[in-house]
Structures are given as C-alpha cells and as structure tokens.
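User: Hey, quick favor. My workstation is busy. Could you predict this chain's structure for me?
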Amino acid sequence: MIEESRKQSIGTREFIALMAMLSALDALSIDAMLPALQDIGREFAVARENDTQLVVSTVFFGFAIGQIFAGPLSDSFGRKRIAYAGLAIYLVGSLCAMLAVSFPMLLGARVLQGIGASIPYVLSTAIVRDQYEGRAMARIMSFIVMVFILVPMIAPAMGQAVLLLFDWRGIFACYLGLGLLTSAWFALRQPETLKESDRHPFSMGRILRAALKICTTRVTLGYILAQGFIIGAFIGYLSTAQQVFQVQYGLGVLFPAFFATLAASLGLASFLNGKLVLRLGMLRICKIALTVMIAVSTVFALIAFAFDGHPPLWALMLYLATTFACVGMLFGNLYAAAMEPLGHVAGIGASVVGSLATLMSLPLATLVGQSYDGSVLPLILGFAILGGLAMLAVFWGEAGTPHEARQGALGD
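Assistant: No problem, here it is.
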C-alpha cells in the first residue's frame, strides 16, 4: 500500500535518514553540550556549579511546551509549514545562544532551541503516519529509531571535538549549520504529506478537551505519572553526567566514550524490547524493569554510601548500564500504554501525553540535579525513589483498568 500511495521523488532510505535527522535535533542539542558545561560556567561566572545544569533542563522545558501545539497546528496548516516554523525557531535559538552575553540570555535561547526542536520531532512521526500504516509504519519507525539511538552515542564526542578547536560557542555554530542543512534538505526533498481535504481548523478547545480526557482517564494518567518519574530520574542523570564523569572521576576528554557506552546499553535495551513486548506484553515488561531498577539502585546506594559517595568507576558503570537497560525498556512501553485508551484522540493525545510527562519530570530532575554534592548518592537515590513512585503509579493506573484489557493490549 505504501509504495503505491507515496508518490514522491525521495527514496525510502533518504526518507528514513531525513526523518531521523528531524527527530534527533533535540537529543543532539542536549548531549553535544555536556562537555562544555564547565566552560560555560566559568565564562559567565556562574556562582554554583550545579546551576550550569539549567543549560540542559531548559531545553526540556521548551521541548515540553512546543510539542503541545506541534501536532494540532500541523493538522490544520500542513506538516511542512509548521515544520518550517519549528526549524526557524530552532535556528533563532541557536544563533542567540551562540551570541549570548549573559547566562540568562543563554538559558532563554536554550528554551527557544527546545521549542524549535520539539516541532520537527513530533512532525517526523506524523509525516511517517501520513504515508505508512500498520507493520510498514512499524518497520520504518524501527529504522528511524535505530538511527536516532546513534545520536547520544556520538554527540558528546562531537562536542568534545569542537572544544579542542574552538570554545563552547563553536558547538552552537554547529547547531546553526546543522539546522540550516536539515531545513534545506527538508524543503527540497520532502513533499507535503497531509492533503487539504484531511485538514481541520485549529482549536484550543480540542486540545483542552483532549487534556481533560487524558487527566480523567485513570490508566492513562497513571502511565503519564510513571513516565514523568522515570524521565525525571533520567534528566537528572543528563544534568549531572558531566560533573560526575569529568569532575568527580576526572575523565576529561574520555567522558564522551563513557557516555556513549551507557547510551548503547539504553539503545540495545530498546531494540530488545521490540522483540520481547509481543511475547511478554507492555505491562509485564514495565513491572520487571521497574523491579530491577529499584532493587539494583537500592543495593548500589548502600555500596556508594560505604565508599562515601565515590564507588569505583567500573562499579558505577555497571550499575548505570543496568539501570539504563531498564530505562530503555520503560520509555516506549510506558508511552504506548498511556496511549492505549486514546485511539480516538491519538494525534492530540500524543502531544498532550508527551508534554505532560516532560513538564512533570522537570522539577523532579532539578531536585535530583541540584542535590549533587560531589557524590553519586543523590543520582542513585533518584533512580531508586522515582522508580518506586513510578511502580506505585503503574499499580494505581492498572487498578482502574478492566482485567480483560490488561490481559489483552497490555499483556498482563
């Protein structure tokens, strides 16, 4: 069906690469900056080293805001027009960050980057859905995700390489160049995929009604809460990774290699989940992953405490690799489980679910990040406690789900 219905000049491989690039701008904008946080703090005389973590969390704030409107606006005005708007906002944010003369100006620019990156991220999925369905869509999305997973593995190395030649502003210059290249590629090669006949007027009422429906659907709300707890713990890690590896453990330019190793464990788990979920079901995998995360984090917190918050690097890496494997299993399953009852409002529902989970995660991530005191204990306890709260949220949401639904869609 797809090859017959999709009449365009762009080939499948190029299409996958382009959609992966659109969806990866946000991850690239976060991970490539990590090696530069210490330099940014020094240049702007940031009083508390932990405050440099805001360079990471402000992108997520912008990302949460932007994705609320991306889907509904594109349903009304077409995918390409709204994607252009998002890419333009991203370019403005990158330029403002590169030219920032103060720390608050840099943080404001990072919010713009997050808003801009969120729009092509959301629309890349919508564009795929416009042209593919069923197993064909799943196949295309799996290839896109495989490319997307490579970004966290190479982004810090890219940032570190730029720092060897230029200062931190050179990284934002790379973002600007990459954004321009992606915009030109998208404009020249990707046709509009939403027909005029399939569009409908933009309505804030539709967004608010969908949000109300989501917040009053217990099972969906339970999985959104669980997502928020897990994302909060993970952003807490991203915010402190540079301090932990480059400062506490003194890895210096080797930091990207260790970061890539942990990203690989998350990516591998996501890949394995795609094969296991059909056999075990989403809910069962979520429970197993959360149980392992809570148990491992609790035990390792005791080990870290015995080492005054500075366990051996090999032990920390083993712990984090195990924890990130659990996170890799949880991300997709919690999101899919939250979306399960929302088939009738899937487009807006996807935007609202993602936005609510991200907004909820930010204060939690800030709490974890700001608790960093030269010890890895706050990070480990963050995974243990937030993992426990995620488990409670899953059970609470599950209690409002008919047993037949758990046995069917969720695989309980």
